[in-house]
Amino acid sequence: MSATDGVAPFRAVVIGGSGQIGGWLLRVLAERGHAAVGTYASTPFPGLHALDASHREQAAAWVREQHPDVVFYPAGFTWVDGCERDPERAYAANLHEPLNLARAAAELGARFVYFSTDYVFDGHDGPYDEHALPHPLSVYGKAKLEAEQALERELGPRALVARTSWVFGPERQGKNFAYQLARTLSAGQELVCPSDQISSPSYGPDVARAAVLLAEAGESGLIHVVGPEVVDRVTFARRIATALGLDPDLIKGIPTASLAQGAPRPLSGGLLSPRLDAWHPGLMKSLDEALADFQARLRDPLLKGELKPIL
């Protein structure tokens, strides 16, 4: 049994264990007494198994060999502009490959947890709750929405879709927005941010913990897993900079239309999380609490060597 609250342990597979959510999923699963194995596609880490999800028959066979009770899929092609330029890859990584593994999981009676995005909305009147009608603007958003719909159609109550947004925090690879910001500002360079993009900053360790707790509870369907605040990108950036002791005056806001980004973005976006809040109120940290925890984890000697330093 779990050492924390009597939850029966299960066996999990994390596809994309080298990523920021995947890495924290593996840690939370271990802390809560579950057996878990993680995979990587291109960036190896100790203990992870190489898995190319584009080799669909082999990938499905490997998942079956693990005999999981739950498969988490935080992997995918999340570079929004790259998805716009390469729709085939976007649909393969965000729809066809996870659906293939979800079917393999379903054959075993396992559940499948898929991570989606607020980019399924057009950003005209956000933030959005789970009942809002999606209307994606980009290839990335369309592929994610089609995956949500396919999982619901084919797996029914064995599928859980966790939508999140603007995920940040300590991670193995140091790729998320907080790391990019720190590298730029610490070099004394100006960071340009869209002044009119609004969304929900979500702390990676909290997103992972929420997903594991939801899996433990047998929750299914669609649930928004996001931080409690909705802010614009410039405010988000300046609060990160201040927390990290960097100069927020180096952050410059300009309209999205002036950035010449390859894919359209939802502007008034963000997510509301009434299902999560009703089930587990206060689970997701405020932005200030998350930033304090971010720094504490980076200083934790038990995590040294596992997390990329912020500077």
Which series of helices and strands comes N to C?
Answer: EHEEHEHHEHEEHEEEHEEHEHH
For the record, give the distance between the C-alpha atoms at the N and C termini, rounded to a whole number.
39 Å
Q: Determine the fraction of residues in helical runs and give it as a percent range.
A: 25-40%
Helical stretch tally: 10
Report low-confidence residues grouped into runs of 5 or more. Answer: none
CATH superfamily of the domain at 11-173 and 201-228 and 269-286: NAD(P)-binding Rossmann-like Domain
CATH topology of the domain at 11-173 and 201-228 and 269-286: Rossmann fold
Total number of β-strand segments?
13
Q: Please identify the top-level CATH class of the domain at 11-173 and 201-228 and 269-286.
A: Alpha Beta
Largest sheet: 7 strands, parallel
> Structural class given helices, strands, pairing?
alpha/beta
